[in-house]
Each structure stands twice: as C-alpha cells, then as structure tokens.
Amino acid sequence: MVSRLGCVMVGSGLLFAASAALAVDPAIKCESDKLRIAAKYTTCRLSAAADAARAFSRPTFDKCESSFLVAWDKAEERARTKGAPCWTEGDASVVKGDIDAHTGSLAESLSSGK
Questions:
Q1: Phi and psi angles of residue 46, each rounded to the nearest 5 degrees, phi first
Q2: Is the four-CA dihedral 22, 27, 33, 35 of positive or negative sign?
Q3: What residues have CB less than 8 Å from 64, skipping those under 6 apart?
Q4: Residue, of 85 and 14, whose pLDDT is higher
Q5: Phi (first) and psi of residue 86, to 5 degrees
Q6: Integer Cα distance of 97 and 99 in angstroms
Q7: Torsion of CA 64, 101, 103, 33, to 10 degrees
Q8: Quick one: how many helices (H) and strands (E) in the chain?
Q9: How far apart are CA 80 and CA 100, in angstroms?
Q10: How far apart are CA 100 and CA 45, in angstroms?
Q11: Percent share of the chain, pLDDT over 90
C-alpha cells in the first residue's frame, strides 16, 4: 500500500517535471517578444498616421521609435541574461526600416489624391 506522503511526493515530482518541460527557451521567447514589439510599433505608426490625416498634419513617430528601440534592446538583453541569445541580434534598425517602409507605403496608398 502506498502512503499518502508517497503519493504527494510522486505527484509533486511529476508537476515539477511538467513545468520544467513547459519552460520556454529564451531564444524562442526573444523571437516571440520581438514579433510583439514589431506589432506594437506598426500599430503605433499607423495610429500616428491616422491622427495626422484627421488633423491635416504630418505624422510624428518619435514616441513610437523610442519605445520600439528600448523594448527591442530589452528583449535582446533579457535573452542574453538567461544564457540563450536571440537568434538574431542587432537587427532593430533593419526591422524598423521594414516597418517604416510598409506603414509609409500603406499610409500613402490611402491618402487622398495620391
């Protein structure tokens, strides 16, 4: 007959093993974080463009850019701290350039008279 304490110990061991198996690799988490950061930056730029269109002014993206760069650096640093650097590093300017080009093109396509 198995004691109650033995069942608790076995159950705790299985729970610990399951939670360790579900832990996310820092490099994978970094990729996920970077995708979320890119999505927020894209949304911020499109929102700024929409606000500027409504006000008949030029959009300013300073707030979007600074938030993006800080968050991107933090994601890379967090992964390095955990011992598994991001699969790509130092790529903030490339990704930012891609997003800038795509959101700029989209805003231009939707603008009146162009």
A1: -65, -35
A2: negative
A3: 41, 44, 45, 48
A4: 85
A5: -60, 155
A6: 5
A7: -50
A8: 4, 0
A9: 27
A10: 8
A11: 69
Of the candidates 94, 107, 111, the one whose C-alpha atom is nearest the C-alpha of residue 61 is: 107
Q: At what angle do helices 26-55 and 62-81 cross, to 10 degrees?
A: 180
Instruction: Give residues with Cβ within 8 angstroms of 25, minimum separation 6.
Output: 84
Query: Is 3 a residue whose pLDDT tops 90?
Result: no
Rg (CA), the chain: 22
Alpha-carbon distance of 42 to 27, in angstroms, equals: 23
Give 53-74 pLDDT, tens digit per residue.
999 999 999 999 999 999 999 9
Q: What is the DSSP letter of 24?
A: P
Question: Is pLDDT of 100 > 80?
Answer: yes
Of 108, 12, 103, give the one whose Cα is nearest residue 61. Answer: 103
For 57, phi then psi, to 5°, come to -130, 180
Tokens describing residue 9? 């110990």
**Amino acid occupying residue 77:** E
